[in-house]
Amino acid sequence: MVDGKDVMPDVNGVLEKMKGFCHRVRSGEWKGYTGKAITDVVNVGIGGSDLGPLMVTEALKPYSKDGPRVWFVSNIDGTHIAKTLAQLDAETTLFIVASKTFTTQETITNAESAKAWFLERAKDKAAVAKHFVALSTNAPKVKDFGIDTENMFEFWDWKLTPFTLGALIAMYEQKIFVQGVMWEINSFDQWGVELGKQLAKKIEPEFTDVAEVHSHDSSTNGLINFLKKNVAWL
């Protein structure tokens, strides 16, 4: 709830739209202006619009199979985008322009450079819609750029008020409390937390060799010795 409105239907709608779009790109259903599938995706953004997707991409890379190569352009220095574009084929490249207002100077400068590079090869402004999509809230600016607003993924400018922040914290604390009741533990036992930290300092050096440990209670000794014997990275 935000300001008394249930925002989840809108959020879920955009998430479903993103899911469908990603599937079309990864499966090869989405085609460029010459009918070829997309092989490279370039995220054009700055700040959180660059670091956020970059972090997610790096974190999920070990679990990704096939799919397009992903590039990130954020530096206003023209060298960054020039070096990136030099490795790409306009016929099979898709650009994601991430800017809430679609007026962010660094992002739009790089996006315009990418569009100029693309049009030098495509020779058709209508082809821009097949190779550029947007993350934005400014539909008129997105349309003026040449992007089909059907391929604009919307987000919102919700403000975190003191009331909303307090409600979120209260919900979190309630969740922790209920979990503790279910597991029959005191979720807010600070002494237990501190004891765990002290025990960790004693246990860490014991993993430097393969010798069995007998200095703790039987449960802790058993777990440490099991890990030493069965986990290859120790």
TrEMBL record:
Gene Ontology cellular component annotations, sorted alphabetically: cytosol
E.C. number(s) listed in UniProt: 5.3.1.9
Biological processes annotated in GO: gluconeogenesis; glucose 6-phosphate metabolic process; glycolytic process
Record-linked SUPFAM superfamilies: SIS domain
Keyword set includes Ubl conjugation: no
Pathway the protein acts in: Carbohydrate degradation; glycolysis; D-glyceraldehyde 3-phosphate and glycerone phosphate from D-glucose: step 2/4
Keyword Transport annotated: no
GO molecular function: carbohydrate derivative binding; glucose-6-phosphate isomerase activity; monosaccharide binding
Known catalytic reactions: alpha-D-glucose 6-phosphate = beta-D-fructose 6-phosphate
Family listed: Belongs to the GPI family.
Keywords attached to this entry: Gluconeogenesis, Glycolysis, Isomerase
InterPro entries, alphabetized: G6P_Isomerase, G6P_Isomerase_C, Phosphoglucose_isomerase_CS, SIS_dom_sf, SIS_PGI_1, SIS_PGI_2
Protein name: Glucose-6-phosphate isomerase
Organism: Nothobranchius kadleci (African annual killifish)
Function: In the cytoplasm, catalyzes the conversion of glucose-6-phosphate to fructose-6-phosphate, the second step in glycolysis, and the reverse reaction during gluconeogenesis. Besides it's role as a glycolytic enzyme, also acts as a secreted cytokine: acts as an angiogenic factor (AMF) that stimulates endothelial cell motility. Acts as a neurotrophic factor, neuroleukin, for spinal and sensory neurons. It is secreted by lectin-stimulated T-cells and induces immunoglobulin secretion.
